[in-house]
Amino acid sequence: MLNRLNFIKIIGIAGTVALSSCGGGGDVAGGLTDFSVSPAEFTWTALKGDEFCSNTGGLENIVTIVGGTPPYRVVSSVPDFAIASKTEVTGKNPTFKVTTGRGCGEVTVLVLDYHSRSTAFTLKVEAGEALDATTTTDSTTTTTP
After folding, report:
1. Do residues 130 and 108 lie in contact, with contact meaning Cβ atoms separated by under 8 Å?
2. In a domain? residue 108
């Protein structure tokens, strides 16, 4: 009986040492990897004359998640302006698409990993340059005073 109890103690101690040497077991974060997105920022500029960015809806960016621990949660700070294609991303090559809504502005899309670490993608849509006083209509140049 004494040998059996000693054997059980030795197995318990060996198991504890094995798990602690590898950083734990199961969902314990032993060696966390760097966590980022690529690109981290992207800027669209509207066409000349589009000062209110009225024609900028539907522009797309592909964002790749690098490092971290899946699954990832994707949250847009303004979901009508930066429309994320997924709210949860998993898989070997974790990517998601961000599509612009109409209008000018700047928005952050937050990405959280399994351990609630965060990184972000920033999307900017800038107004186009104003048209100058010279406009062209049917090959005729008109100058406005």
Report:
1. no
2. yes
